[in-house]
Amino acid sequence: SGSRACHAWRGVGILPRLPGAYIASIRLGPRFISQQQSDNNKKTTTIKPIKTSQTNVPGPAGTVGEGHHVLPLPSAARRARTWNMHSTRHTDEYAWLQNPEDTGTQQYLHDEDMYRSALLASLSPVRHSLFKDMTRATSDQLLSLPEQYGGWLYYVRRPANANFPVYCRRKVGETNEQEEIMIDQNTEGSDFPYIAVETLKVSPNQSLLAYTRDTTGTELHHLVIRTLNNYIPSPGDAGALLARPGTILEIIPNVMSHEWAGDNKTVFYTTRDTLGRPYRVMRHVIGQPHDEDEIVFQENDDKMFLDITRTKDEKFILMTSSSKTKTEVRTLPIEENPTMKPKMFLPRQDMFEYFVEHNGDKFFIVTNQDAENYKIV
To answer: Which residues is 305 bridged to in the sheet?
Structure first.
């Protein structure tokens, strides 16, 4: 969460289609009457302005004046498709619309859009007025509250007229003018048809950034590791570790979650199986080919999902296998040798869930054992 686990913003707009075949009358802005007509069994919708001071409304083929403009009601062709499933025969006359490359599908969507544009044309002034009122009451620049991690403040902002957020940090005591831009999603996204930056995590010495990125819209993420402005190679470093600040060092495909080890060059991450289930924890050392990464743990129960996090005091890495009814956690001390084998905390049992945190020299457990509404142990 917070500065080391930020999520990109997404938005979806939906405009429902008015069922023209069943409209008796519609009242919009300058008043309209929509009447259903029949001509040789071909359905059409007549959009006719009632005489008012404003009667000229643009239609898809021109301007509607004192007369009336007849718009064909969009109608998809019926192409029967039949198949068998679970010993049942199914028929769907509109299955062909699932193919966005079909020219018929494209034409039908075009006709629907034109029909909507003509039907709602008179609402355009109202739509623009509402948009202006809403944007006047909100700022087009967004800025999150900073979160301190070590000697740095991490935050997210979205500049005016930008589509995506910018992930930034600055040293405690410095002003925003002295900020460092870790990722400008607007710039990074210019090379891809789609981009979503998901979980961001900085190394313990805060000189490296590891984040997941989706550039296809399929929610298949790559892990990207890059240097930050305060990055300085250590004595004995070679290969990728000799890179300059602001350089991408590694891109690892098919990653769900990730965490840094305490040595600032080892990253643990989870990968997905063919069904999209996170099931393996891998160990990667920067500078080594990712296809040589070692398997730390593999979850073979296909009902369990595997996740990797760290405790809030940053003493342990947690590898959690969980389903809706049971949990099993493995721990690995962050400051120890990252090649150590993780230790099982408590073995899995049916209807037994538990969640682990650490503080000082104690583990704190939230569990449902003998507690329907959970308890702290």
So the answer is: 322
Identity of the amino acid at 12:
V
Tell me if 329 sits within 8 A of 345, measured CB to CB. yes
Residue 68 contacts by C-beta under 8 Å, 6 or more apart in sequence?
Answer: 46, 47, 48, 49
DSSP state of 93: T
pLDDT tens for each residue of 287-338: 899 999 999 999 999 999 999 999 999 999 999 999 999 999 999 999 889 9
Length of the chain: 377
Phi then psi for residue 116, to 5 deg, are -65, -45
With b meaning 16 or more CB within 10 Å and e meaning fewer, what string describes 35-48?
Answer: eeeeeeeeeebebe
Of the candidates 226, 221, 261, 255, the residue with the CA atom closest to the CA atom of residue 240: 226
Predicted structure pTM score: 0.67
Residue 153, number of CB atoms within 10 A of its CB:
20
User: How many Cα atoms within 13 Å fall on the side-chain side of residue 206?
Assistant: 15
Q: Cα–Cα distance between 376 and 368 in angstroms, integer?
A: 9
Q: How far is CA 332 from CA 8, 124, 256, 329, in A?
A: 30, 60, 19, 10
Is 58 in contact with 29 (CB distance < 8 Å)?
A: no
**What span, in angstroms and rounded, lies between the C-alpha atoms of 198 and 306?**
18
Tens of pLDDT, residues 3-43: 333 333 222 222 333 333 322 222 233 333 333 333 444 44
Q: What's the rounded Cα separation, in Å, for the pair 74 and 111? A: 6
CA–chain centroid gap for 96, Å, is 29
Evaluate whether 323 touches 351 at the Cβ level (below 8 Å).
no
- Say how far apart CA 69 and CA 114 lie, in whole Å: 13
Contact assessment for residue 155 and residue 168, using Cβ atoms and an 8 Å cutoff: yes
Percent helix, percent strand, percent coil in the chain, to nearest 5: 15, 40, 45
Beta strand pairing call for 62-64 and 81-85: unpaired
Q: DSSP letter string over 5-40?
A: S----------PPP-GGG-S----SS-EEEEEEEET
Rounded to an integer, what distance in angstroms lies between the CA atom of residue 347 and that of residue 34? 68
Q: Which two tokens stand for residue 191?
A: 């090379």
Tokens (6 digits) for 309:
């996090």
Which residues lie across from 281 on neighbouring strands? 270, 297
Least confident range from 18-22, 93-97, 150-154, 191-195: namely: 18-22
